[in-house]
Specification:
The chain is mainly alpha-helical. The protein is 45% helix and 8% strand. The protein is built from 5 helices and 4 strands. The strands form 2 sheets. A two-stranded parallel ribbon has the order 1-2. Keywords: DNA damage.
């Protein structure tokens, strides 16, 4: 993975903070909006610097949260009105675009 700059971290943080309640974005959506080469960079940033952000609004392109986060993430999303069917969030219905 290429070196991540502080500017990139702040851009990702600002984008995640801007996702409205009741909406979701994929890691790829954030990467595209931030001009990053890979959604994995967003994942790395989210793992290391997102405890104060609405991290639960960022999901994989499959619409299925990572297994180790699924219960907590889907509960938080459900509290905002984002419903999952069989553990999958409908991007067609809930996706936020920048």
């Amino acid at each position: 993975m290429p070196a991540v700059t502080e500017e990139q971290v702040e851009t990702v943080r600002a984008l995640v903070a801007a996702i409205p309640s009741g909406r979701v974005c994929t890691y790829g959506d954030i990467a595209d909006a931030a001009g990053l080469s890979s959604p994995r960079i967003v994942g790395w940033i989210m793992r290391t610097d997102s405890s104060d952000l609405p991290w639960h609004r960022v999901i994989p392109a499959s619409g299925r949260p990572a297994p180790h986060l699924a219960t907590r993430q889907l509960e938080r999303l459900r509290a905002e009105g984002v419903l999952a069917v069989d553990g999958r969030v409908s991007l067609r219905e809930y996706r936020h675009t920048f």
